[in-house]
Amino acid sequence: MSQRLDYFAITPDLFQPMLEQEKLFKDSTLEHSLVELVKLRASQINGCAFCIHMHSHDLRAHGESEDRMQLLNAWRESSLYTKRERAALAWCEALTRVEKTGAPDTDYEEMTRLFSPREQVVLTLLISAINAWNRIAIGFRTSHPAAEEANAA
Predict the structure, then answer these.
(1) What is the pTM of this model?
(2) 1 with 143: CB under 8 angstroms?
């Protein structure tokens, strides 16, 4: 698969607000692991190889366990995730699949129980942003770096 267009090289100015927003997410009160698990989960749902690669590598670099990354697809059946992570992942799935879920009250209520009002907004914007990044990467066929994996094989 080859990239359709180097969108960032062509329009870096259009991506600047998104990059600045990413800094705000990083500096928020949301835990780094929670932020990256949400990004990884949305990317799994959307099938974005570039983003799955990026966020799994970032999680690993920050000491995340292989089990938590590998079981993320089945987080509801695993005891490895905190209550806050579970609420964030449920909200992530609800918003990523909003056409099917309609953002259920139960998911919203659990999220509001465990996150401050500001964190609720940050989390919702984070989910919106990763879905946008996924659509950009998939739409323009952005490939994940493969040299490291190819050399290991």
Answers:
(1) 0.92
(2) yes
